[in-house]
Structure formats: structure tokens, C-alpha cells
Known about the structure:
The model is unreliable at 136-140 and 167-175 (pLDDT under 50). The chain has 175 residues and is α+β, with helices and mostly antiparallel strands. It is built from 7 helices and 8 strands, in the order αββαβααβββααββα. The chain is 31% helix and 11% strand. The longest helix is centred in the first third of the chain and has 19 residues, at 19-37. The chain has helices at 3-6, 19-37, 48-51, 55-61, 109-113, 126-135, 153-157, and strands at residues 9-10, 16-17, 42-44, 66-67, 73-74, 87-89, 141-142, 147-149. The radius of gyration is 17 Å and the shape is globular.
Amino acid sequence: MTRDEWRWFVRQDGTEHCDADDRCKAVCGEIAQALGRCGYRTDILPYPGECGVQFRSVAQAAGMGRTGTNAFLLHPVWGPWIQLRLLATDVVSRETLVCSSPACTRCGGCVTACPAGAILKDSFDGLLCHSYRGGKGEYTPFGPERELKYCTICADVCPIGRQPKSSTDPFKDNR
């Protein structure tokens, strides 16, 4: 996949879109259907603004990575180039994942690169980031429908997972 397939866009009609997230939702749908066939109730949770659950906190607790200075969940291999979705299910799992790598090296690249000044050494100001993105030229027309792309400067400069991984699905055999 290309970087643009990992980026979020806002279409002219106001809907948001990300190719990698579309794929993630499709995989979650496949998993939910498979669990349903096995008799388990499973729901795909909507994004945090709709369900109140902070996805990166759940992913961190599950051992998938750690939150970096830029407030992204950083996977030790893929860095910020991941998409998160949550399934709520009544399956009882005995699996425990532990992320032993701190992922974020605290290099300060995102702090220096952030045009909004929203990333500080020890904190992230989400409102300042959001205000900047909405009020500046970061939303530049892109794509066949003249979508507007979100700022991803902090992800672009992150040394963890510098290039988004290919579309190969590492979990395909574990479904």
C-alpha cells in the first residue's frame, strides 16, 4: 500500500475515508461473521467519537504497541502506519500479548515537525492539532473526488515504521 492509502481524507460531502481503514473494517466484518457462525455475539465498535472508547488505549492494553509523543499508537514494526478497529465479543480469550518494545524513541522529530506546535516533549494538545488542521492549508484537494487530506506530518517523520507495510495481511492465517 502507498502512504496515501493509509491517510484519512475528507470528501466534499463531509464524509471521511481511508483505504486502509476500509480494509480493516472488511477484515473485522469477516471475523465477526466467522465468530457469529461459531455462536458468539460480536459487534464492530464505531469510532471513539461515537462509542466513547479510546481505541489506542485498548490496543496498548492488548500489547499491540505504545502511545508515542505524537499521541499515535506506535507499533514496534509498523510505527504509526496502522489502523485500529475494535470488536466487542463474548468470546473468552486466554491469549495475552505483551509489547516489550517502547516503540517511541523520544527522538523529538514529531515535536519539531508539527506545524501547529501541538506536540510537546511530554504532552499532546489534541484540540490545538484539530484547530490547526481545520483552519490551515493542510486540507489540500487530493484525489479523483477532490478529497481533502489530513495532516500526517508527525507520522511522516516518525523513524518507527518509516514506510507503511505492504498490503500483505500478517494475520490472514490466524482468522
